[in-house]
Design goal:
Blueprint (H helix, E strand, L loop, with lengths): L17 H8 L7 H13 L3 H21 L4 E5 L9 H6 L6 E6 L2 H10 L6 E5 L5 H6 L1 H6 L7 E5 L11 H11 L5 E7 L8 H9 L10 H5 L6 E2 L5 E2 L20 E7 L2
Length: about 270
């Protein structure tokens, strides 16, 4: 298997990686045969996975465009994976050319793949840190610098909180991050939910139990609680395609099949 320039020599190309599998679903090129094989097996069990992943990326794009249009120039993307196929810095700079972005992921493989992509970008940084250790995450120089003055920051928690188990106290983790944000900051959340396909919650969670990144699908009420302290932006908490769609026709007849609830909130 040919090793690409963005893949360090210590990475095992025969072992699938969640960030590269996601890139494959998005139609990217930062993946290998082992990632594509894992993706195919997952799709056999959950055929809508690629559409869900693309809907997730489309929501990220729309929310970043919205916040950049509201004047945001600082973005903290936690659980970022590999910044390919419409990454935050490219989307934000279409509106705010000087937008700064800090990508954070706990996966050393995702971070290693990300670094070469951003080596020539002085306004974007990649940090290896764990959401479940918020004090350590906030103390990293890149994150601390992003939060260092009164400028509002957009905190992006897109498709990451469902990887945090209940015993880790996900709501307390989000509250800790919220309290570190400057006034007027924003939060963006996408979370796998129980309501959209209640008959398949068990099987969907079982798919991820077989991987190193099991998920916990939560209820509308539990997801709403992540926005405590924030004022929800219209249209509130909705299914993935329903948040400020590019056009009504892009929502589709069954938005609940995307199995994810999303929302954007603003601090006073």
């Amino acid at each position: 298997m040919r090793r690409e320039s963005w893949s360090p020599s210590w990475i095992d190309l025969d072992k699938p990686n969640a960030a590269r599998v996601y890139d494959y679903y998005l139609g990217g090129s930062h993946n290998f045969a082992a990632d594509r094989e894992m993706a195919r097996k997952a799709v056999e069990l959950w055929p809508e996975l690629p559409q869900i992943m693309r809907a997730n990326r489309a929501f990220l794009r729309r929310s970043v465009q919205y916040l950049a249009g509201e004047g945001f120039t600082r973005f903290l993307d936690i659980g970022s994976g590999i910044p390919t196929v419409g990454p935050v810095h490219e989307v934000a700079r279409e509106v705010q050319p000087e937008a700064r972005v800090v990508y954070v992921d706990r996966d050393p493989v995702a971070v290693a793949h990300s670094l070469p992509l951003l080596v020539d970008d002085p306004l974007s940084h990649v940090v290896q840190a764990d959401l479940t250790r918020p004090d350590e995450l906030l103390a990293t120089p890149e994150v601390a610098d992003l939060l260092d003055d009164s400028a509002p920051v957009a905190l992006l928690l897109v498709a990451v909180l469902h990887f945090v188990r209940d015993e880790a106290g996900p709501h307390k983790l989000v509250a800790r991050l919220r309290d570190a944000l400057p006034p007027g900051s924003a939060i963006v959340i996408c979370h796998a939910c129980r309501e959209g396909r209640p008959d398949q919650v068990g099987s969907h969670q079982d798919i991820y139990q077989r991987t190193s990144t099991p998920i916990t699908m939560r209820s509308h009420e539990e997801i709403t609680a992540f926005f405590d302290g924030f004022e929800l932006v219209d249209p509130g908490i909705v299914y993935l395609p329903e948040w400020r769609p590019d056009s009504p026709g892009t929502v589709g007849p069954h938005p609940e099949r995307m199995a994810g609830l999303v929302g954007v909130g603003r601090l006073p």
